[in-house]
Design brief:
Oligomer: single chain
CATH topology of the largest domain: Purple Acid Phosphatase, chain A, domain 2
Order of helices and strands: HEEHEHEHHHHHHEEHHHHEEEEEEHHHH
CATH class of the largest domain: Alpha Beta
Strand order of the largest sheet: 1-5-6-7-9-8
Radius of gyration: 26 Å
CATH superfamily of the largest domain: Metallo-dependent phosphatases
CATH architecture of the largest domain: 4-Layer Sandwich
Structural class: alpha/beta
Number of helices: 17
Distance between the termini: 29 Å
């Protein structure tokens, strides 16, 4: 074997070793359903409230889906921070869209994390006070009138007229669909309340000082139990449960509303969660834009997507990608400063395997071939390699 051929063979062996190690590390980091590390790109969206058209539009602008509404994010992790339902007409369409996107993302090597919001939990507990009439209509079918009549016949005659006014067509079907064994109820009950990606916590409402010691898994396990095996107890005394109490992760507004003097408590909360920042929805941003508090350690991303609820609101998405955080709107993009942890930047936490390869190549005085970082396949030559002195390929590479 020619000396130059042995040089390249050794180089490609090192390439293969680095890539295999990186692949193994990636699998290990993704082993926990609650915590993810080494994710190169994250996109998060706040409250939707049935604003399906705006929802789809912002996901297209953020390159999460293509023009046909299909997954286009590759290995992106997309986080929906809950409150898909209530207040707007098209919540069922949005839920069906998310369920399909979950499957498509996983097939493409990405991930869709749908988190519970307080409105999903309220619906599972039978609280329909903020449900829009059109949301009931989405569940109405040809047999809805007969189903409602059968329900009315179970009531006392004096109660039927009022019950008729309070039971629009489709409401009974909706209650069944979000029940413990219903189509949407079964799916929602297995979803998490909070996750952590690259040291950043994502949750609908916020994590209060009283809840932080539970940690990510503890919070998810307790809420899931309250909505499944302990559902009857939860319905009896909802305000005593983590799922519905005012300082619980789905309802807490302190991170959005407490004064700046609350900063030490924020530090303590993040320390208990093992996080450097927390991304929240639930409370509409006062500026109508994605913003930060407490030196970038709290990020608010609910910008009022549903116009029937927030007339001057807008759709938005937060992108976190290899050291850069960006607020994405339909008409513009703006940088967002998210806190770094222990002096380590987001870029260093989400370094790709090719970064490590380049470092190793420089350390061994080996030049990374252009083909490795090019989208075009390398050209194979049938000519016999000339001696290193004659070709001086490394010299030419260094001059570029």
């Amino acid at each position: 074997m020619h000396p130059s051929d042995r040089q390249w063979l050794r180089f490609w062996i090192r390439v293969a070793a680095v890539l295999l190690l990186a692949l193994a590390a990636t699998v290990a980091r993704a082993a926990s359903p609650c915590e993810w590390e080494g994710v190169e790109r994250v996109v998060a969206v706040g409250d939707v409230h049935g604003a399906y058209d705006r929802y789809v539009e912002i996901l297209k602008v953020a390159d999460v889906i293509d023009a046909n509404g299909r997954w286009a994010g590759g290995s992106t992790h997309f986080v929906q921070l809950g409150d898909v339902v209530d207040r707007g007409p098209d919540s069922r369409k949005a839920l069906d869209f998310l369920r399909r996107l979950e499957r498509e993302a996983q097939s493409a090597g990405g991930r869709v994390h749908v988190l519970l919001g307080n409105h999903e939990v309220a619906r599972m507990l039978g609280d329909l006070r903020l449900t829009a009439l059109a949301e009931y209509e989405a569940f109405a079918a040809s047999g809805s009138a007969a189903l409602r009549e059968r329900f009315l016949q179970t009531l006392k005659p004096a109660e039927r007229d009022e019950a008729l006014k309070q039971t629009p067509l489709g409401q009974i079907e909706m209650r069944q669909a979000f029940g413990r064994d219903g189509e949407y109820g079964k799916w929602l009950r297995q979803l998490p309340v909070t996750i952590r990606i690259n040291g950043i916590v994502f949750v609908h409402g916020g994590i209060s000082p009283a809840v932080a010691p539970l940690g990510c898994s503890g919070i998810n396990d307790q809420v899931r139990r309250e909505l499944t095996s302990d559902l009857d107890k939860t319905r009896t005394a909802p305000l005593a449960t983590l799922a519905a109490r005012v300082d619980g992760p789905l309802w807490y507004r302190g991170l959005a509303q407490e004064p700046d003097a609350f900063a030490p408590q924020v530090t303590d909360i993040l320390s208990k969660l093992g996080a450097r920042a927390i991304v929240i929805g639930h409370t509409v941003s006062a500026t109508g834009r994605i913003g930060t508090r407490f030196d970038g350690r709290v990020v608010q991303i609910d910008t009022g997507m549903q116009p029937a609820y927030v007339p001057n609101g807008r759709a938005s998405a937060l992108e976190i990608r290899r050291g850069e955080s960006t607020a994405i709107y339909v008409d513009r993009r703006e940088p967002v400063a998210i806190a770094k942890s222990n002096g380590v930047s987001e870029q260093e936490e989400a370094r790709s395997p090719f970064d490590e390869l380049r470092v190793n190549a420089l350390a061994s005085r080996t030049v990374v071939p252009r083909q490795l970082t090019s989208s075009r396949p390398p050209r194979l030559s049938t000519r016999r390699a000339r001696s290193p002195r004659a070709s001086c390929r490394p010299c030419r590479d260094r001059s570029r």
